[in-house]
Specification:
Elements: H1 6-10, H2 93-101, E1 143-144, H3 147-153, E2 178-179, H4 181-184
Antiparallel strand pairs: 1-2
């Protein structure tokens, strides 16, 4: 399916840094497999994955506490925003991202290894891609973003539903009404709006999709 059109192929995970074996780099050059998707997904989960959606194959982060962003101007309820401390089967979308990006788990630590070979020597993220185990100095995530919050804050646009921020394409998704890393980042496409963004940042366009400034 990735070869149907050049445009679809060019904007896919195959040509991005999330292709661990053949993308720019590649990050795991000694992997003995040509399966790109296996480093995050599998069609047949093992028991260890505990039915973690979406058909997750990457071993999850064990970080108990990431912390949450706090500010005198923040009106979102962050009391349940902590993404750490949950095991496979109950982790948030953002916690799945941190399974690689907190730097504690190798990107090739999988629940099910590919049938066509091995995944190379264990390798953890380093450099700018390693966000560390504290999210207290990053944009808040895992909070409910709804019309009530927009009204209370006064500087936010009310989302059109609990599925997305607005009706502008490309859409900024919400996950059961919450804002997650994947609301702003498209993990499968680094080409359209780098780095893995869902919308342009020219003139702060991405920020202005939510913020009234």
């Amino acid at each position: 399916m990735l070869l149907i059109t050049g445009v679809a192929y060019g904007g896919s995970v195959v040509n991005s840094k999330h292709n661990m074996i053949g993308g720019p780099g590649p990050y795991i050059p000694d992997a003995d497999t040509d399966q790109v998707c296996v480093f995050c997904h599998t069609p047949h989960q093992t028991a260890d994955a505990t039915a973690q959606d979406p058909l997750w194959n990457k071993q999850v982060t064990q970080t108990a506490t990431f912390g949450v962003y706090a500010s005198p101007t923040l009106d979102a309820d962050m009391s349940n925003a902590e993404i750490g401390g949950k095991g496979a089967g109950s982790q948030s979308v953002s916690a799945l991202c941190m399974g690689c990006h907190d730097g504690t788990v190798a990107v090739n630590s999988l629940y099910r290894t590919p049938s066509d070979g091995g995944v190379g020597v264990a390798k953890k993220l380093t450099g700018y891609a390693n966000l560390g185990t504290s999210l207290s100095d990053d944009h808040p995530i895992n909070f409910t973003y709804d019309a009530t919050l927009a009204t209370k804050d006064g500087g936010l646009k009310p989302p059109v539903s609990d599925k997305r921020v607005d009706n502008v394409e490309p859409y900024l998704p919400l996950f059961e009404g919450t804002l997650q890393c994947a609301s702003c980042h498209n993990v499968h496409d680094n080409d359209t709006y780098k780095p893995f963004l869902r919308s342009s940042i020219n003139g702060s366009a991405l920020c202005l999709r939510c913020h009234e400034k």
